[in-house]
Write a structure and sequence with these properties.
Elements lengths: L2 H10 L11 H4 L11 H9 L10 H4 L5 H5 L6 H14 L18 H10 L3
Helix pairs in contact: 1-6
Length: 122
């Protein structure tokens, strides 16, 4: 088992090898157009032990709405994997969320603010 997969398995309990790349997680994601890689591509990168996945903006853009998890035919908790990737980055001192620099914060959807606040804490 690769190092990245082991860390994700330890944090989230998810085996990303259950994903067979159907793309339903990406198709059901409301924020996929803002992501640099799609959720299913992110899972493939984890399967391949590609550490560049930790440089991606995708885990930080994820709103943790669980749409991806709900539509996964293999029961992979994609949002849990996203959370694990954020935690791995936070533990390395990398944090891409700073609510102090968000303009017009009072007009943002509440789920965005809650998700951003969760991402800022490890």
């Amino acid at each position: 088992m690769n190092e990245l997969l082991e860390r994700i398995l330890k944090i989230s309990g998810e085996n990303t090898f259950a994903c067979y790349q159907c793309g339903k997680c990406s198709g059901g994601c409301p924020l996929v157009e803002d992501m640099d890689i799609t959720p299913n591509q992110m899972l493939k990168m984890v399967q391949l032990d590609d550490k560049d996945v930790l440089k991606s903006e995708t885990p930080w853009i994820c709103a943790s709405c669980l749409n991806c998890t709900a539509v996964c035919p293999r029961g992979v908790n994609v949002a849990g994997v996203m959370e694990a990737l954020r935690l791995i980055s936070l533990r390395k001192g990398v944090n891409r969320v700073d609510l102090r620099n968000v303009e017009e914060i009072e007009r943002m959807p509440q789920i965005l603010l809650v998700a951003a606040a969760r991402k800022a804490t490890g």
